[in-house]
Amino acid sequence: MSVAGNWQLVLNSPMGKQDVSLDLKEVDGQLSGILVNTTNDMTSEILEGTVEGDELRWKVKLPKGKMTLVFTTTVTEDTMSGKVKAGMFGSFKLSGQRV
User: Fold this and answer.
1) How many domains does the chain have?
2) pLDDT tens digits, residue range 12-66?
3) DSSP of 23-87, one letter per residue?
């Protein structure tokens, strides 16, 4: 199953609920694309993305700051869930679906 396409996610961050749009591309187990935090109007490129079975991993570097977010998610059909590690802010959950 390909994970490529558009996704709408909700991150339950320490700063409150964050709505995120994700445009994913997948080629030979490598994940790339763009993440847009529509709550804060911030766009970040997906870095070091991988796909292994139903597990996705990627990083984004926040444009306003020096923090890198690390995403680890699982995809089941058109649903994604997982967590985001945000440095000293700890980890928080995310969930969403393909649109």
Assistant:
1) 1
2) 988 899 999 999 999 999 999 999 999 988 999 999 999 999 999 999 998 777 8
3) EEEEETTEEEEEEEETTTTEEEEEEEEEEETTEEEEEEE-SSSS-EEEEEEEEETTEEEEEEE-G
Q: What is the pTM of this model?
A: 0.94
Q: 50 is written with which tokens?
A: 């991988």
Q: Which amino acid is at 69?
A: L
On whether the CB atoms of residues 45 and 24 are closer than 8 A, the answer is no
Distance of CA 20 to the CA centre of its chain: 8
Name which of 40, 51, 57 is nearest 2 in CA terms. Answer: 51
Name the phi and psi angles at 54, rounded to 5.
Answer: -100, 10
Range of the domain at 94: 5-98
Give me the CATH number covering residue 81: 2.40.128.120
